[in-house]
Fold each of these.
Amino acid sequence: MNGQLPTATKPSIQTIVSVEALLESAADDPTISTLLEALFIGNQRLLTPMLQMLRPEMIDEYLDSARVIWNAISAMSDQDPSTRLDEIIKGLQFHSVDFLRRQVAFARTGDYQAEDAQTVYEEVYHSASVMKEYLDGLLLTYIAWPNHYRLLQFYRDSYLAQGPSGRCLEVGPGHGFLALLQIQSHEDNTLLGIDISPYSVAYSKECLAAAGVDGSRFEIRLGDATDNYANVTECFDRIVMAEVLEHVEQPQTLLRSAVKCSHDQTLIFLSTVVNIEAIDHLYLYRSIEEVRQMIDDCGLTIVEELDMPLEFASEASESYEVALICRPKPK
């Protein structure tokens, strides 16, 4: 492995967007120019795969995504922009370097390093120092990691663009950005978020409030969603569990709870990983088919699917990020 983050595509050299071209396109927006300089010049080795995925015709859309994410991040802090930028870049470096190190170990052992849910809770979700970098960095990966960028586009263009509006549930909102987009996608949407980390709860609330979302439209609740969705029994029109299934010991419990809290037209967004290691990954899916089979067994039908393989240098691995749009099977 060559020390680069994974990319979903391997274009020819001629199609790679240069850092100079990206910065030139953002020249009229000093804020975004500063962000991109910090990303692509200060961390060029880590961010090369993102450049490899971009095409000239994608630049405007990419800059729009970068602007939306930076606005969300910067609005949550009264620090000067330079200090805040340094913080989130450190968060991205934390995720990137830790991912590479753990993925190398996983390739050797074939197993995740995390011991159990209680240990992960104590060492990650209940640690103020870890969660600060974790949440800042995770939000920034949407414009720094190719597959996370693709996942965000799929979420916005395929999931938010269809289905009923109304009552929404997000399990594990983390940084709150997907919850923000869900609420903003329709004026009738209200949202309940459940997260096991008190720091994620606070971060999500801050993200939504800083974006100007009326407090009557959302509630972010501390709770263990593996315990019957923290005893939530109401029915929802939309449910999101993004990058959550691999973080629990029995993801079947979350999927079955989603069915219980759904009606026939409920639209459900799921994403997870296959053979990809992280500091808090517990459940190991060894194939995409295993993901599909569990979803089917738990009473859901896949409507649309995006499979994003990871590639290291010239050697493809059997590792994937998977995003799925589902509905409950007819009752």
Amino acid sequence: MATIDALPDIADQVAGRVPILLDGGVRRGTDGLKALVLGARAVLGRPYLWGLAAAGETGVRRVLEMFRAELELAMALAGGATLGAITRSLVTPRR
């Protein structure tokens, strides 16, 4: 099972009692948006490491800039000015 597919059930079970940090399968801003609306408090992932390996601190900064730009675009396309304005209905879970 993919991490993103397990996330909604886990988020429902912990019901906000502990923060969920999703690490796995996050490659772009749209992945981050899906994880956040499905219950993650934050996302981690390998792209930061790729940026570090490619260009050190500058590479990590660039990865974060790209991720943020992709996240903001995905939010705008989903019709939400804030993360709180975007609901789980945006994502259709695989079952």
Amino acid sequence: MASYTPQKSDKFTFGLWTVGNPGIDPFGVAVRTPVTPVERVRKLGDLGAYGVNLHDNDLVPFGATAHERDRIVKEFQQALKDSGMVCAMATTNLFTHPVFKDGAFTSNDPKIRAFALQKVMNAIDLGVELGAPIFVFWGGREGAEVDASKDPVAAARRFRDALNFLSEYVLSQKYGLKFALEAKPNEPRGDIYLPTTGAMLGFIATLDHPEMVGVNPEFAHETMAGLNFYHAVAQALEAGKLFHIDLNGQKPGRYDQDFRFGQEDYKQNFFLVKLLEDHKYDGPKHFDAHPLRTSDPEDVWEFAKGCMRTYLIFKEKAAQYNADKEIQAILKELNAGDKNLDPILSSKFTPQNAQTLRDIAFHADDLAAQPLPYENLDQLVFDLLLGVR
């Protein structure tokens, strides 16, 4: 029996807000006593996690004095050191306080936009002080319920202006920080701007410093809209823009459930893990998930262990898939290629290549008759995942 004990080298991380969630939801108050950030770090370190992620106010309360901030940060740094943990990612809370009820970077009010920039600069300083190499932007309130309230073209420009400003700030400070944009199709706003990973990738190309900006796709966010997260991550990987990733569980068409990783859709999660492993993604694997409201304090840590264990099980299954002779034989046949056409199809246009293609007599009926044993292949995957192969 394989050991599914996480190692620091697995780079598993948790947000302070995940294991620290007291079970609040829109219909109920807290069911668990809050655990301090230092306690969360120490416990996660004992479980084999690599690091933690945080919003600014997960650690430093909103409105804290400079003295309070420095004391809290010093204690937290010591906890990281004692636990052999890192701060793998930082971000800013631009959605909880009422000042951001109608957005931060996209607000119609210039004072609110300026305050948001100030808050983010302070959060970037905090993240760098803690050693975070990645800074994530999730536009939690960047959207609208009333289309008459905002010009979405102006909103896009404001968002771009903010990221350009903050990119220049990071460069001026010589921080070496990278940004990762996180998309979500809806919730908590009726409609959120830049709702998908694909939209974020298109937006990045319009920035002044696209080289320092990538994406942080989240399983629940794409899945809740009925999209295929596996494909979104593949697009980000192919573009060289997968800077960070959020792993959790989600049923399509629901609110943002943030279930334990692997709790829903085993096949989708299997192919996701296989994608990350096959393409040697080396960034943090962040479990942006919440324990169930029904969990008691001890069950919270079972939730954390379960996220990591599930990833390692899927990683083992991916290795089995890659070594399965029958599966690989089918894939080899499907991807046999053509020694004459492959050089043309993989190269840039030339008049000679175009003429070569024009001169070939293709037989569409013969091509259509070639077998595609996808039913068999899919069943083999099913058998492998359920342990009967």
Amino acid sequence: MSTTEEHHDRTDTVLAIRFTGTGRDYARIWIVNLVLTLATLGLYLPFARARQLRYLRQHTLIEGEALDFDGDGRELLRPHLALLGALLLYTLIAHAAPLLAALLLLALAPAGPLLLRRMLRWRLEHTLWRGQRLSFHGDEAQARRVFLPAAAPLALLLLGQALLAGQEDTGPDRSGWMLPALVSLALLGLLMLVPWLHARQRRYHHGHFGFGTERTRLDPAVEPADFYRLHGGVIALLLGALAINAVFAAWIDTLLAAAPMLSGLLLDMTLVLALRAWLSARTQDLLWNRTRSDRYRFVSDLPVPRLLMRSLKHLLLCVLTLGLYWPHAVMATTRLRLESVRIVRTQGSTN
């Protein structure tokens, strides 16, 4: 080992993360939030989110000291009401005036990135550790640019679907194959852009966190190719599942014949959970292992098999308990994800 490596080993301090939340305690918050959100037709949702975040933060310990959260949801009430109003208006006019509804969605689209930025700032700037607030430094222009590549295909998709819906009400389709082809092309374009947009969004988030004078950066940078490989892995797993289905078709058909609805649902959910576990773990490791500031860096090692087995166990228990096990599942998954991350502090770093 070189002298430089020995020096870094002696000066690096690992800040372990522990999560102490329990399903029993969280269930009380979850039930109250659910009841009040339903009773107020969704108006309580910002306050429910604040109560949930406060519990999660206060049971997350870094180097033995808990985080805190002092937000109460009032800052999100106005944008939340605006969003509910827009959704209600869209619902009312979607059937009678599909083109007008599509134009409404396009008019509101630029507000989406700004709302996501506001949510992220709210979550971080109300989070404290050792009395010092976290922060987020991404600006509005950067937030808009994140999703800019999706603007053209999204507009084409929404307007094309609206025109097709209008043709169903006015009579036979006179546009031939061109309009359906354009809609299909727009949808394909959006699907092809998903990994790129995912990369841009995560780069925007992880590149602008702050704590005191520290500012995070992604080093090495996260590129779209990284996320195309991740999403390509999901497609490969899906193709593998289809191949297994083809090989064991007779056995699977026998299983489905015994209890077609339940068996089919469980097989589909198992596949979805497997794909989600793989993508979630690989994304977390990719991002946090590249997130660092001048004095801090992160190390993440979220094991896919453990996450998958835990997800399958939670699915089974939620089915058996008619959903009542959900708070315990959330706590167990949160613990696994958080405790798979470590913060490394370098003393006297000149970087």
